[in-house]
Amino acid sequence: MVRPITRVAKYVIPDPAWRWARSRYKHWKSADNSPPIGAVDFGDFRRLTPISKKFGADRGTILDRYYIEVFLGQHRGDVRGRVLEIGDNFYTLQFGGDEVTKSDVLHVEAGNPLATIVADLTSADEVPSNTFDCIIFTHTIQMIYDIHAGMHHLYRILKPGGVLLMTTHGTSKVGRRLGKDNWCVYWRLTEDSVQRLFSESFQAENVSVQGYGNIFAATAFLYGLAAEELTPEELDTYDPDYQVLVAARGVKPLEPVTD
């Protein structure tokens, strides 16, 4: 249908205007393939409510959980020995298996039947230093207001040579709010802020930070689409301007750092 309309338009629109319109169209096509102003088709995204209010969990795999599992899969060799996880030990079992000699679960409040340790990470002096070979710390740092104290204790309770595997939201729906939930989301972190945060405890050479996501993945995640609704290319292409998730790996030195 486009071509016949174009042919008609060529005879209806005055020649100078037609030449200008054609030149602008060619410029648009050669620039960034962006549709002209007023021609964006938002389709199912033109709405004021998300497609899923449950992060897409009712449609399939939550999109940021896909990235968490990609990251942990890349570092499954670190999940060994005595492993600490927050809330439950789902990822410890999934990625550690027989390499885990003891699985601990930390929760900030009493009453979690899976918890072996009840403590607030910002004041966790009761948890012994140099205890864990690996800490899996997924999507928790953004709910700790005093993130520097939290990182201090995470580093302290790692054994020398131990590894902290952390993930956090970049672009995301706000999932918890005070007054509605027992805890809330305080922070949205970036690759740069996570790098700096880790480097305050770990030596810079022992820290690696990786972002995941792109404009389409970020948009899909905000609307509540599941990972299964995106193609591998749409999921795995990374654009640092649109960080859906930020992950970091920090290794505690085998020997204490001296001045």
Description:
- The protein has helices spanning 2-12, 15-31, 63-74, 90-96, 147-157, 191-199, 215-223, 232-236; strands at 81-86, 100-107, 117-118, 132-138, 158-169, 207-212, 245-251.
- With 259 residues, the protein is an alpha/beta fold.
- A 7-stranded mixed sheet has the order 3-2-1-4-5-7-6, with helices on both faces.
- Helices cover 31% and strands 19% of the residues.
- It starts with a helix and ends in an 8-residue tail after the last strand.
Secondary-structure element order, N to C? HHHEHEEEHEHEHHE
- For the secondary structure, the number of strands is 7
Q: What is the averaged pLDDT score?
A: 89
Q: Percentage of helical residues?
A: 25-40%
Distance between the termini: 74 Å
Report strand order across the widest sheet. Answer: 3-2-1-4-5-7-6
- Helix and strand composition category: alpha/beta
Question: Can you tell me the overall shape?
Answer: elongated
Specify the biggest β-sheet: 7 strands, mixed
Q: Work out the helix count.
A: 8
Q: Which spans of ≥5 residues are poorly predicted at pLDDT below 50? A: 1-5
Percentage of residues in DSSP E strands: 15-25%
